[in-house]
Design goal:
single chain; two-stranded antiparallel ribbon; about 55% helix; about 5% strand; elongated
Length: about 160
């Protein structure tokens, strides 16, 4: 079942802003790219690769906070929009579970038009169900409510 596009997603698509997964991937790639650039620069000036990588890890964090401020703000907006959307969906689901509102209409299931015939009332015999019969130890059916295997305290068997 697909859910309709929430208003936040529609507004975001109109604004051309990518979703949460795209924004996270972009920010992660930018951070990894900065780490690689700093590592290569340090290695080119003669620092051993392992030391260059460790120094780049320490240096890239504050640099990314300054250089990627716009990406980080976009990521914050995407997280806030995702959180708001999930909160509204959770509230809607809880309201449906409490019975406050009906479920949203599903576009997948066509609604059959009302039949012009009057509804047929079920007969009295079809509304009362008899309990199922159990099988005895020899495979014969035992009527419901009777004990299929009497115990020793029940008295002599006939």
């Amino acid at each position: 079942m697909t859910s309709p596009t929430p208003p936040q997603a529609a507004a975001r698509e109109r604004a051309g802003e990518p979703g949460l997964a795209t924004t996270v991937a972009l920010y992660t790639l930018a951070r990894l790219g900065l780490l690689a650039v700093v590592t290569v620069v340090l290695a080119l000036i003669g620092v051993p690769w392992l030391v260059a990588l460790l120094v780049a890890l320490v240096v890239a964090l504050p640099l990314s906070m300054v250089l990627f401020r716009g990406l980080r703000e976009r990521l914050d907006r995407a997280i806030a929009a995702s959180t708001a959307r999930r909160s509204s969906e959770r509230a809607s689901l809880r309201a449906q579970l409490r019975g406050d509102v009906g479920p949203p209409p599903s576009p997948d299931i066509p609604v059959a038009p009302a039949s012009p015939e009057a509804p047929v009332a079920p007969s009295a015999s079809s509304t009362v169900a008899s309990p199922p019969a159990a099988a005895g130890t020899d495979g014969a059916e035992v009527p419901a409510g009777s004990d299929p295997a009497p115990s020793e305290g029940d008295g002599p068997t006939r």
